[in-house]
Amino acid sequence: MAAKDEEYVDLICRTFCTYYKEGREDVRCGTFLFLQRTLAPGELRDLIVTYGASCIESSAVYSRDVDVKEIACEECDFLIDGCDFRENRSGPPCGGYAVVEMLLG
Predict the structure, then answer these.
(1) DSSP letters along 9-47, please?
(2) Are 15 and 95 a contacting pair, CB within 8 Å?
(3) At a CB cut-off of 8 Å and minimum separation 6, what does 26 contact?
(4) What DSSP line would sit under 39-89, residue for residue?
(5) Is there a contact between 98 and 16 (Cβ–Cβ < 8 Å)?
(6) DSSP secondary-structure letter at 96?
(7) Predicted confidence band at 4 (pLDDT cuts at 50, 70, 90)?
(8) What are phi and psi of 62, to 5 degrees?
(9) Beta-carbon-side half-sphere exposure of residue 40 (alpha carbons within 13 Å)
(10) What is the pTM of this model?
(11) What's the pLDDT tens digit per position in 29-75?
(12) Torsion angle defined by CA atoms of residues 27, 84, 74 and 53, in that order, rounded to the nearest 10 degrees
C-alpha cells in the first residue's frame, strides 16, 4: 500500500470505522474513496483536529443520507456483499460517513 493510502487509512478507517480490520486495506468503502478524491491528507487531518473525531461522529444525524449515497456509496466495494447500514440500518455506517455528512452540512 502506498504511503499516501496509509495516511487515509489512518485518518478514516482507524479513526472512525467500527468495521476496519488490519490487512483488508485492498477493499475500500465509498466514503473512503470520496474523501481520498476530495481532500488531501493534510486537509482531512486538519478537519479532524479542528472538530475532533468524537464530535464528528456524534454529529452524524444522517440528514444528508440521500446525498452521501449518491456521491459516495454508489462506488462502495461493500455494497456487493451487502451493507448493513444501507440495507436495513442494522449496523452503523462506514467510517467516513460522518465526515462526508459533515462536509455536506
Answers:
(1) IIIIIIHH-TT--TT-TTS--HHHHHHHHHS-HHHHHHH
(2) yes
(3) none
(4) S-HHHHHHHHHHH-HHHHHHT---TTHHHHHHHTGGG-GGGTT--HHHHHS
(5) yes
(6) T
(7) low
(8) 65, 25
(9) 3
(10) 0.88
(11) 999 999 999 999 999 999 999 999 999 888 888 889 999 999 999 88
(12) -70
40: cell is 488531501
**Residue 94 in 3-state DSSP?**
coil
Cell numbers found for residue 44:
482531512
Phi, psi angles (nearest 5°) of residue 91: -135, 170
Q: How far apart are CA 9 and CA 4, in angstroms?
A: 9
Nearest to 3 by CA among 25, 19, 35: 25
Cell readout for 97 is: 460517513
